[in-house]
Design brief:
Blueprint lengths: L1 H19 L30 E2 L28 E5 L3 E6 L3 E6 L4 E5 L20 E6 L3 E6 L4 E5 L18 E6 L3 E6 L4 E5 L11 E6 L3 E6 L4 E5 L15 E6 L3 E6 L4 E5 L13 E6 L3 E6 L4 E5 L13 E6 L3 E6 L4 E5 L13 E6 L3 E6 L4 E5 L10 E6 L3 E6 L4 E5 L2 E3 L8 E4 L3 E5 L5 E5 L15 E6 L3 E6 L4 E5 L13 E6 L3 E6 L4 E5 L13 E6 L3 E6 L4 E5 L13 E6 L3 E6 L4 E5 L10 E3 L7
Antiparallel strand pairs: 1-31, 2-23, 3-4, 4-5, 6-7, 7-8, 9-10, 10-11, 12-13, 13-14, 15-16, 16-17, 18-19, 19-20, 21-22, 22-23, 24-25, 25-26, 27-28, 28-29, 29-30, 31-32, 32-33, 34-35, 35-36, 37-38, 38-39, 40-41, 41-42, 43-44, 44-45, 45-46
């Protein structure tokens, strides 16, 4: 009987694993994974573009940023990893493909696979939402969090394999907790009732009032207000997993084919499948428990973590440290240490064990340096000259030839050169763009204001009157898109780079000796010098474009990057991947991927990029 049970279980899981790793065809079995419930007390259970704040798809100058398995059964043979993310976090939730954590300021940070889940833009459902949260739960293909006002926000997969499930569309109202899994999510409302949404294969939630809920692969369990357990779902796959033990419990966590609960005497009881020992907890007193796919981890009262069950990828081998919470995923585990650091271990196939050192909102490639703004407003630069550093929180950045300017969160601009702080214009701005030796900014009223650090011999710092939607500063000329969609350029007109063509444009980017713009139909039109083919764009639909020294790059509507022109240093040979923005410098290029990481390619004489790889710059405020 045991042999038959393992065979069925393996068959179901292998179908899932093959599909998740590129297999074709509709899944023939249930989608399973770890539960995503949150335990009481906030302990998470298992389960050259214009630098513009909040604006995307507009380019404004040389290199200015565009807009803003299984335990015991799965990917065995992968080297287990243990990594930590410094910072102060209150909880962490490990799913199958991704991990999310709630910081002390209430914001959420996610990392791992952004294609299959929710690290960035899972299945087009949007990025990790902004706002302040009290908890987060990561499921198989989506994640949900409880906001400060009790409402739930979810992101990730909404439609998968023919099931128009809607797990990312939570109901209205206030909730105290949420738990996300494969195609279903459940939450405990403020009145103690449970509400579930998404694809349901099994019984509806029972009547009564609950204090917590945990959604697993095929069943759901909750702790009732009288401290007893209630479970419901598909029992045929669980070998009795939907029949919890009697007794009083403070929390419950549902895994792949088993469940575990923390009893009021702080001992742990598990039930369901025990193929790998996942339902045989050790003796002792615990603070919390988290059931993964085929293993379980518990936080002991001394702060150490102990795990039992499957351990093929190191997911059941926690580091010897002191923790305040633990979350077991499919085949990786994460915990929050007493100092607020998040530490993860196990398989890192999707990067779910490697928290991002920085998630970037924009990047700007200048002449021989690169600067990026992280989602928390911290600005970081790398490359030639570690110039004067200016404290503050930034919304956008623009790196030029010898000068760099940043748009601060309060709307003011700060600038500096290779040798220290530099003159910056007074007033409030909505965007900033730096060229060769001048800069321009778009004011809140739509007017453009320019300044120069040397002479204004070509008139590049003398903008015309009118209302503009964006502005881009090139080497010795400047161009802007007016509110009617037309482009106006001023300054040096060598090679005709300042003679803008007629038409309606959504963005413009001024390079050294050429200019490019994205028309409203997504086509790119370039004018000016074309000695290296920099003004000969391919026929395709683009979301943004960035004109560099003698090359140009654009982000296509499918998120891929296309470059044309000079390729002496490989600056016009972009890597594969899906990008949110691109910035072409003089002889190097950088892009922000949809997961927030920065990738650069081309000339690396001053370490302004790391050719052929993703560069995570040092986290230090400018």
């Amino acid at each position: 009987m045991m042999v038959k049970r393992i065979s069925v279980r393996m068959a179901v899981w292998l179908v899932l694993w093959a599909a998740a790793c590129g297999g074709s065809g509709r899944k023939s079995g249930p989608e399973v994974g770890p539960g995503g419930g949150a335990a009481p007390g906030g302990i998470s259970g298992s389960g050259g573009t214009q630098a513009t704040a909040g604006r995307s798809g507009e380019d404004g100058g040389i290199g200015v940023a565009s807009g803003g398995g299984s335990a015991g059964t799965g990917r065995s043979g992968l080297s287990p990893e243990t990594t930590s993310l410094a910072g102060t976090f209150v909880s962490v939730s490990a799913g199958r493909y991704a991990t999310c954590a709630v910081k002390t300021d209430g914001t959420i940070v996610c990392w791992g696979d952004d294609e299959n889940c929710c690290a960035a833009n899972g299945y087009g459902q949007g990025p990790v939402p902004a706002g302040n949260f009290t908890s987060v739960s990561v499921g198989l293909y989506h994640a949900c969090g409880v906001q400060l006002d009790g409402t739930i926000a979810c992101w990730g997969d909404d439609v998968r394999n023919g099931y128009d499930a809607g797990p990312s569309a939570p109901p209205a109202g206030a909730f105290s907790s949420v738990s996300a899994e494969g195609r279903e999510s459940c939450g405990v409302r403020m009145d103690g009732t449970i509400d579930c949404w998404g694809y349901r294969d099994g019984a509806a939630p029972p009547a009564g009032t609950f204090v917590s809920v945990s959604v697993g692969g095929l069943q759901i369990c909750g702790v009732k207000t009288d401290m007893t357990l209630a479970c419901w779902g598909t029992d045929s796959y669980y070998h009795g997993d939907a029949t919890p033990p009697a007794g009083s419990f403070t929390s419950v966590s549902v895994g792949g084919y088993h469940s575990c609960g923390l009893k009021t005497d702080r001992s742990i009881a598990c039930w369901g499948s025990n193929d790998f020992g996942e339902s045989t907890p050790p003796a002792g007193t615990f603070l919390s428990v988290s059931a993964g796919f085929a293993y379980t981890c518990g936080l002991k009262i001394d702060g150490t973590i102990t795990c039992w069950g499957g351990n093929s990828n190191g997911e059941g081998t926690p580091p010897v440290r002191t923790f305040v919470s633990v979350s077991a995923g499919s085949d990786h585990t994460c915990g929050v240490e007493t100092d607020g650091t998040v530490t993860c271990w196990g398989t890192n196939f999707y990067g779910q064990v490697t928290p991002h050192a920085g998630i970037f909102a924009s990047v700007s490639a200048g002449y021989n340096r690169t600067c990026g703004v992280q989602t928390d407003g911290i600005a970081t630069c790398w490359g030639f000259q570690q110039f004067g550093r200016v404290a503050g929180t930034f919304a956008a950045f623009s790196a030029g030839e010898d000068h760099t300017c940043g748009l601060k969160a309060d709307g003011t601009i700060a600038c500096w050169s290779d040798y220290g702080p530099d003159e910056a214009p007074a007033g409030m701005f909505a965007s900033v763009s730096v060229g060769g030796s001048h800069g321009c900014g778009l004011k809140p009223d739509g007017t453009v204001s320019c300044w120069n650090w040397h002479v204004n011999d070509a008139g590049q710092s003398t903008p015309p009157a009118g209302a503009f939607a964006s502005v881009s500063a090139g080497e010795l000329h400047t161009c802007g898109v007016k509110t009617d969609g037309s482009i106006v350029c001023w300054g040096d007109n060598n090679n005709g780079k300042a003679i803008a063509p007629a038409g309606i444009f959504s963005s413009v980017s001024a390079g050294c000796e050429h200019t490019c713009g994205v028309k409203t139909d997504g086509s790119v039109l370039c004018w000016g010098a074309n000695d290296s083919g920099q003004s000969a764009p391919p026929a395709s639909a683009f979301a943004s474009v960035s004109a560099g020294g003698t090359h140009t790059c654009g982000v296509k509507t499918d998120g891929s990057i296309a470059c044309w022109g000079d390729n002496q240093y490989g600056e016009a040979t972009p890597p594969a991947g899906t990008f949110a923005s691109v910035s072409a410098g003089y002889s190097h290029t950088c892009g922000v991927k949809t997961d927030g990481s920065v990738t650069c390619w081309g000339d690396n004489e001053y370490q302004q990029c790391t050719c052929g790889g993703s560069y995570v710059p040092p986290i230090s405020p400018i």
